[in-house]
Amino acid sequence: MSFQAYLDKVETQTGLTPRQFIALAKEQGFDETTKSTVVLNWLKETYGLGHGHAQAMVHVILKGPKISSTHVGKGGAHGDKSDELWLDGKDSNPNP
């Protein structure tokens, strides 16, 4: 599953876009100095996310939309089209 696919699945499951999760996390007082475990547990407990999907959201919340280029442009299950994740909803993604 690509990184973007994890985010899209979270949106399908919760009805919230990654950008909305970032705003909700800020309301909780979370920022780049927050320990990932704190955010991870919040996502699991409050939104019922599984570990992998919660981890993907933790990355976006704490580190932003930029990802490693390791799997960018490569085929296969883990390939992403860009090193910049789309945060504004799967239906509006210009690079589906």
UniProtKB/TrEMBL annotation:
It holds the Pfam family DUF4287. Residues 69-96 are annotated as: Disordered. It comes from the Bacteria. Residues 77-96 have a biased composition (Basic and acidic residues). This is DUF4287 domain-containing protein.
